[in-house]
Amino acid sequence: MKAIVFLGTQFSGSSREALIAAKRLGYLVILFTNRINHIKNRSSFSEITDMIFCNLDDFQELKVQIIKLHDKGIEVVAIVSFIDTYCYMASLLAGEFGLKSFSTNAIFKMQNKMLSRLCLKNTPYVPWFKIVDSLGEIDYLEVKKRLPLVIKNPISTGSKDVYLVNTVEEFTSCMEILLSKHPHQVIVEQYVQGPQYLIETLVENSKVYIIAIIEQEVYIYNGHSIIIGYKLVHDLPKDMNSSLVKAINDIIKYHGMENGSCHLEMRYVNNSWKLIEINPRISGGAMNELIRYGLGINLVEETLKLALKEEINITPRFQLFINVQYLICNIIGKVLKVTGRIEAQNSPGVISVFIKPRRGQLIYPPVTMGNRYAYVIVSGLSEKEALFNAK
Predict the structure, then answer these.
(1) Which residue intervals of 185-286 are DSSP H helices?
(2) Which of 6, 120, 209, 371 could, after both became Cys, cross-link 366 (CB 3.0–4.6 A)?
(3) Rounded-to-10 torsion of CA 256, 261, 263, 268
(4) How many helices and strands, by DSSP H and E, does the chain display?
(5) What is the mean pLDDT of the segment spanning 51-69?
(6) Which strands sit side by side in the sheet containing 149-152, from one edge to the other?
(7) CA separation, residue 319 to residues 33, 230, 312 (Å)
(8) What are phi and psi of 164, to 5 degrees?
(9) Among 257, 254, 291, which residue's Cα sits nearest to residue 275?
């Protein structure tokens, strides 16, 4: 009996679709989880063969659990994670058991925004940045000169603990918040303006495959950048495309990734590309669906094939114009009911409607990507029509 072990999942989105893809490929699906609500809702995960509650940050405990699986006659053929926090641990474990692991050191660098920035320090792909340990070392004249700035916790995910500041007062306030929560180093970097794109890639034997280019619609709320829209791009202008391909290849090379999956968020600024961030996995939420409906590629399935040493197939089967729009809420409240699902499903071009919160759940204004509460995936005969239908 051959099994794929997953470290963590969400109830929906790319990480959940990876579990379903593993079952479709014919493998036992073993989920290691540290979330008690997964255990309580075990019946909701029909694709999972076994769910094991454990500490996903404890290498030795995870190692023992995998040995127990072996003792039961289960052959673990891959250990993976589609959750940012656990990609590195999954790769470490895979290497420990002699399985094909993705580029572990590259994943480690990608997970830490400070290390990622240092990889690219002498390249044109990063805006001005500074790593700060305390308020005492800040040159406020330089801060004033370089405003607006972005302040980041180096290990943040999903836009959590990332602030856009426009004044010295906002800068000081946000720095105090971050340094009190995370008394380590904080990244301060120049805010750059320009269209923002998400680029999904697979890397096999150091060859970089650009799977999809998606233009992002960014919404700023109280200094937090939240992505509320995604547009699948089929044709970038020639000069933008050639420079993007070079930038993506260079950035991935500088991080040292030879095998694995990663997505990059880039901005096009004054005819050059700047990296906003890079993450060692497919983007979550609706991303796998967007690519599947727009290009006919199931990226989580191809990522699993890469981990299994199977031949990947990333040739687009078709090209459709796809747009995804997310819903956020600008007030705190409790969900009483959700209306309009059927009307949305019956609207022109709508492929999929997803609603996250259940009745009685508290919802909040957007300070992280986790505060997006619904989305629609929509097609059209053109980019403009897909956007119009989605809106």
Answers:
(1) 238-255
(2) 371
(3) 50
(4) 13, 18
(5) 97
(6) 129-132, 186-190, 149-152, 162-165
(7) 36, 16, 19
(8) -100, 125
(9) 254
Please check whether residue 138 is in contact with residue 132, taking contact to mean a CB–CB distance below 8 angstroms. yes
Task: Please tell me which residue, 367 or 69, carries the higher pLDDT value.
Answer: 69
Contact 27, 49 (CB under 8 A): no
Under 8 Å between Cβ of 214 and 200: yes
What is the distance in angstroms between the CA of the first residue and the CA of the last residue of the chain?
Answer: 47
Torsion over CA: 160, 178, 108, 60 (sign)? negative
Residue tagged 């500074």 (tokens) = 130
Helix or strand (DSSP H, E) at 20: helix 14-24
Calpha distance 260→211 (Å, rounded): 13
Question: In angstroms, what is the C-alpha Rg of the chain?
Answer: 21
DSSP state of 84: G
Q: Is 217 helix (H, G, I), strand (E, B) or coil?
A: strand
User: Please, which residues bridge with residue 188 across strands?
Assistant: 130, 151
Residue 140: Cβ within 10 Å count: 11
Judged by phi (left if over 0) then psi (alpha if -120 to 50, else beta), residue 27 lies in: beta
200 strand-pairing partners:
212, 263
140's tokens: 């406020």
Gap between the Cα atoms of 375 and 353, Å rounded: 6
Q: Mean pLDDT across the chain, nearest whole number?
A: 94
Under the banding of pLDDT at 50, 70 and 90, the label for residue 182 is low
The answer on pLDDT for 154 being more than 90 is: no
How many Cβ atoms are within 10 Å of 92's Cβ, its own excluded?
A: 17
- Contacts of 164-168 with C-beta under 8 Å, sequence gap 24+, read 164/191, 164/220, 164/223, 164/224, 164/225, 165/223, 168/140, 168/143, 168/144
Q: Cβ distance 56 to 32 under 8 Å?
A: yes
Say which amino acid occupies 159. Answer: S
- Give the mean model confidence (pLDDT) for residues 46-53: 97
Q: Which residue has the tokens 């547009």?
A: 231
* Single-letter amino acid code for the residue at 272: S
pLDDT score at 183: 62
The dihedrals phi and psi of 15, each to the nearest 5 degrees, come to -65, -35
For residue 285, which phi and psi values (nearest 5 degrees)?
60, -130
Say how many residues make up the chain: 391
